Amino acid sequence: MARPTKGPEFGARPTLGFRFDHVLWRRFRVIAQPYFYPPHEGGRSWGMLVLAMLVCVIGGTYWAAAAGISLALFLAPPGSLPSQLPTLMLRLRTMPAPVLAVALPVAAAVFTWRVRRHLAGRWTRWGSLALLLFLLFCVTGLNVYISYVFRGIDNQLVAREEEGFYKAMSGYGVALLVAVPVIGFYKYMRMKLARQWRGFLCEFFLERYLSRQVYYKLDSNTEGAGIDNPDQRLTEDVDYFTSESLSFLLDVLGGILDLISFAAILWATSKPLMGSLLAYALVGTVIAAAVGQRLMEINYEQLRREADLRYSLVRIRDNAEAIAFYGGEAQEASGVRERLHSALANYDRNIRWSIIVLVYQRMFFYLATLVPYLVIGSLYFAKKVDFGTVGQGAFAFSMVLSAVTLIIDRIKDISRFAAGVNRLGAFYDAMEADGDNALERLKTRSQQAGPATLGKENELDDLLEAGRFPSNRRDVAQIRSVVEPGAAVELSEMSLQTPTGRTLITGLSLALLGSATRVPLRGGAAGVRRLLIVGPSGFGKSSLLRAIAGLWSRGTGEIRRPPAGEMLFLPQKPYMPLGDLRTQLLYPNLLAIASDSHLVEALDHLGLRDLPTRFPGGFDAVQDWSRVLSGGEQQRLAIARCLLASPPPALLVLDEATSALPARDEANLYRLLRKRDLSYISVGHRDSLVEHHDRVLEICGGGDWRLLTAEQWLSAGENAPHAHGVQSVRQGVEASCFAFSAR
Question: Where is the ABC transmembrane type-1 domain (predicted)?
Answer without folding.
Answer: 130-416
